Amino acid sequence: MTSLLTWTPGQSTTTFTHSSEPLVLPQKSGPKRAFPELCRDVTPSCHLNPLLFNGHLQTMWTAVNKAAPAVHYKRRVFASEEYNFKGHFTVDFAVAPPPRSGTAEDEGPEDQGLREDPMGVGHTRLPPRTTYFTSKEFEHLSSEDTKPLLITLHGLSGGSYEVYLRHVIEPLIRASTGERSEQGLSGGEWEALVVNSRGCAGSKITSSILYNARATWDVRQVVKWARQTWPTRPLYGVGYSLGANILTNYLGEEGEECLLDAAVIVSNPWKLEVSNLALKRTWLGSEVYSKTMGNNMRNLFETHKEEILKNKSLSEEKILQLKYLYEFDRAVQCATWGYPTETAYYRDASSTDSVLSIRIPTFCLHARDDPIASDEAVPYEEIQQTPWVVMCATAGGGHLAWYELSGGRWHAKPIVQFLKQMQADVDFSKIDRKVGIAAKGPQGGHQTPFAFDPMRRKAHVPGSEAQH
Questions:
Q1: Domain boundary residue, one of 307, 333, 348
Q2: Are residues 382 and 323 in the same domain?
Q3: Which residue range(s) make up the domain with 91?
Q4: Is residue 4 part of a domain?
Q5: Helices and strands (H, E) in the chain, number of each type
Q6: Which one, 99, 111, 341, 396, has the greatest CB density within 10 A?
Q7: Is residue 432 among the annotated active site residues?
């Protein structure tokens, strides 16, 4: 079912796509509420900067306008528990600003705190306003408090410092009364952390493995760890761009057993092969976006090539000559994960089918003029087949942009309001996660019934029963 908000001059029209038999959310008090109704209510009118009148201008402005609220972090290096994907990755936890006379600039390091990794792995650089937990601090994180925790996945080659995610984290962790909360790290009503992809945000890798668009093992480990560390906290997830694709796949893989209560998916490229073809179709897509992303990944390779080249199937010469993102995926991802072509990798890592296995309330944001996460790649039909997912698509906004005339970022408003509303009103303990099983499709006829499994994978570890 699709509905359209009323258009007024200067407003980017907003469309909602969802099932005709939507999920009904039990409330902590009062009558039950339809999930799409809640999503519409938390979504304000979308008024964007009229000078940035198309998706290209909106997207390119992200390279110019870096204004964002300051978020301070403390980092911990985690050792992977996944047998087949050994190595290390970092998690940055939002913390209250330290007391000091000056302010931290985006280009400057934090001026107080531990700058050496107590785990001994270290870093290539520390992002702004980021230090390490001491071993003692980290050991004492566990608590029985009930503060909601937001777990964030960033976009391709990004990290916890990214502007678009700080616009969401800062208003959640800000102390609403001006007084710091005694519980948790942030001092505010919410807690937040960012799972950095391997090698990103100045982290070091300790194996030949980077990450890919279906690299769900690290977020799975962090969610399990968070549940063990804070057994009474509500857990929420948000993913952006490639991180949105990873998070969607994680939600689908976990299904009814997902430890998160609700999630937000932002600017997901969904069908990766389709989004790649859309990029190659135009000069801007190929020579600006794909080339920029390819350059970013090549730089990531150069930073970590000593470890990555332990994979003898990789060619340093070929990697250093590549220009476009799909060339990087062909040279590195295929050789790492066993895919014959980058298009085979794209098809297997895409998150479109994962939508049908999601069993927690999931709110998606997308700009229809997004030049990177193409509108033709959005699984509108699949979303209409499941009660668990609602898609909000704006006519404008570009890729992770949504710049308003004031300089603010519109996407932060519905995300923050959605999370706060779900936390304040919804009784998650009464949600029946078996609703929507039929989203896998009707069983076929003939003498042997057929059934569609949305989480089937073509790539797997030989001899392993697990598909994730």
A1: 348
A2: no
A3: 11-100+112-271+350-438
A4: no
A5: 15, 13
A6: 396
A7: no
